[in-house]
């Protein structure tokens, strides 16, 4: 295990990314455990931070950690040093606290325990997935495959992968589009197949009652919703179930 870590992480220049990801996951799991204990009003767990009656959301602490870790990391020349790893871990911890309340920032109101609050968990899962792909050595928009083709090869790979990823995102396929930035064939499949019925692409290009609109809704009902329910169960298991209201 030690040899693998040295070869694949430290020697490959991914120590800071590894520390970021570990701290990010640990920070997210800890803060979700904390808010679930507070939600259950467990007596032995400290409650919210409310100096003077003002509830301070944990995203505030996350912003402080991100600033300290980010700026501190910029001042460290040796990316393999312990200080660099600590700065990356602090930045990851802060990012976890901020993204755990991403939905509150997006909607500008407290939707933490509502259905809309699931957005925060989805963003966290996507961040973990992207960081994991980077840690495995994958590069976005096909740059790893096109690097040997010169400037034109890089430009063409960049344009193609970004284009199909954007189309997949416009079709409402968030995971497909984001992962497609790293694995071009995933974005290509998402760009070619039918859009989700309520996506920007479908609203603009699928006329109400048209055959494509009916096919899209049928696919949503038969395939997408079972997958969504499975994802919601996983989200509830990790982050807690939203309130019924």
Summarize, please.
The chain is mainly α and about 240 residues long. It is about 70% helix and about 0% strand.
Mean pLDDT: 88
Counting H and I runs of at least 4 residues, what is the number of helices?
Answer: 12
Residue share in β-strands: under 5%
SSE run? HHHHHHHHHHHH
Strand elements, count: 0
Q: What Rg, in angstroms, do the CA atoms define?
A: 21 Å
Organism: Actinomadura livida
Keywords: Membrane, Transmembrane, Transmembrane helix
Protein name: Integral membrane protein
What does this structure look like?
There is one protein chain. The protein has helices at residues 2-10, 15-39, 58-74, 82-99, 102-107, 118-135, 143-146, 150-170, 174-180, 184-192, 200-205, 211-239. By secondary structure, the protein is mainly α. The protein has a domain at 1-125. It is globular and about 55 Å long. The mean pLDDT is 88.
Write the layout of secondary structure elements.
Blueprint: H1 2-10, H2 15-39, H3 58-74, H4 82-99, H5 102-107, H6 118-135, H7 143-146, H8 150-170, H9 174-180, H10 184-192, H11 200-205, H12 211-239
Main attributes?
245 residues; globular; mainly alpha; 12 helices
């Amino acid at each position: 295990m030690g040899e693998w870590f040295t070869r694949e992480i430290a020697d490959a220049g991914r120590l800071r990314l590894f520390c970021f990801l570990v701290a990010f996951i640990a920070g997210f799991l800890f803060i979700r455990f904390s808010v679930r204990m507070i939600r259950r009003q467990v007596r032995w767990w400290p409650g919210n931070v409310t100096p003077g009656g003002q509830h301070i959301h944990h995203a505030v602490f996350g912003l402080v950690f991100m600033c300290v870790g980010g700026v501190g990391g910029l001042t460290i020349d040796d990316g393999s040093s312990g200080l660099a790893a600590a700065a990356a871990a602090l930045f990851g911890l802060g990012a976890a606290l901020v993204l755990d309340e991403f939905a509150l920032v997006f909607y500008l109101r407290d939707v933490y325990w509502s259905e809309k609050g699931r957005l925060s968990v989805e963003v966290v899962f996507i961040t973990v997935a992207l960081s994991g792909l980077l840690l495995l050595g994958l590069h976005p928009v096909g740059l790893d495959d096109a690097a040997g083709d010169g400037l034109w090869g890089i430009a063409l790979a960049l344009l193609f992968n970004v284009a199909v990823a954007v189309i997949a995102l416009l079709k409402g396929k968030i995971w497909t589009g984001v992962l497609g930035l790293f694995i071009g064939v995933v974005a290509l499949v998402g760009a070619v197949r039918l859009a989700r019925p309520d996506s920007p692409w479908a609203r603009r290009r699928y006329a109400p009652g048209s055959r494509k609109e009916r096919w899209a809704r049928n696919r949503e009902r038969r395939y997408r919703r079972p997958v969504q329910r499975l994802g919601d169960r996983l989200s509830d298991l990790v982050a807690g179930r939203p309130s019924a209201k």
